[in-house]
Amino acid sequence: MKSRLVGAVPVSAIGLGAMPLSVEGRPGEARALATVHAALDAGVTLLDTADSYHLPGDDPGHNEFLLARALAAYGGDTDGVLVTTKGGRGRPADGSWTVTGTPRHLKAAAEASLKRLGVEAIGLYQLHKPDPAVPFEDSVGALRELLDEGKIRLAGISNTDVRQIRTAHAILGDRLVSVQNRYSPAVRDSEPELRLCAELGLAFLPWSPLGGVSRSVLDGPSEPAADRFAAFHAVARERGVSPQQITLAWLLAKSPAMVPIPGASRPETIRDSAAAADLVLSGEELARLDGAETS
Prior knowledge:
Helix 1 runs parallel beside helix 9, helix 3 (about 105-115) packs across helix 4 and helix 7 (about 230-240) crosses helix 8. Strands 3-4-5-8-9-10-11 form a seven-stranded parallel sheet, covered by helices on one side. Strands 1-2 form a two-stranded antiparallel sheet. It has helices spanning about 30-40, 60-75, 105-115, 135-150, 160-170, 190-200, 230-240, 245-255, 265-275, 285-290, and strands at about 5, 10, 15, 45-50, 80-85, 90, 100, 120-125, 150-160, 175-180, 205. Helix 2 links the parallel strand 4 and strand 5 (about 80-85). By secondary structure, the chain is an alpha/beta fold. Residues about 215-225 have low confidence and may be disordered.
């Protein structure tokens, strides 16, 4: 598979967002492991997880444990695989998503993730979301301490704005390598952050990158707003591929900083997504997709 950079580390142009393997509606373990193995077979070398990817109030770290088991059971070479995990969010029994960005919590969370993943140092550790009750500089300072202690090799931030990216870059320097914000056909409000990532040499890992293409008017009656994304389905039909492949190829064309991490819960889904790395869209096709506005 074609590669892109996370810091100085080459990774597959398409990663795997492992969250669907552990949250509500998750598959059984056999299918979950098969999904990760299918990703590896397809050349995916970036696996994204978080300590909060688990059922509400149950099995903290489920997704990290799962990836560790999948990598251990894989028959091929995994030396080039970069596992990125995140800390700073929780999933209590009521199903909500909490945010805790104190240095004490983040350092303890990183230690726990380190053990669950079974590694000497976490390849890439990201602040999952800024905590409005904690100075952002303090949360990023915890990442710096983890880097200095050798417990994480690279650092990233998620759900952040331009000011916060600049602040984190000033604190961490070239050890800050990634920003993980939401970006998809349906949600494009992180354009300024994407441009800044390209300027600073940071990888931009869009979460929920397929939002907006699950259905369209071409598929029959659906949400009234679905026609905004009909272009993705139309181009897919013309190319004879899935709308998801078209979406991921469109994202890759947006910026060399872009490294999509589509979620998957079935082997065939991640195989389809991985194929987008080799799909090159024409200028005319990209213009049609760019014109599929969200409003």
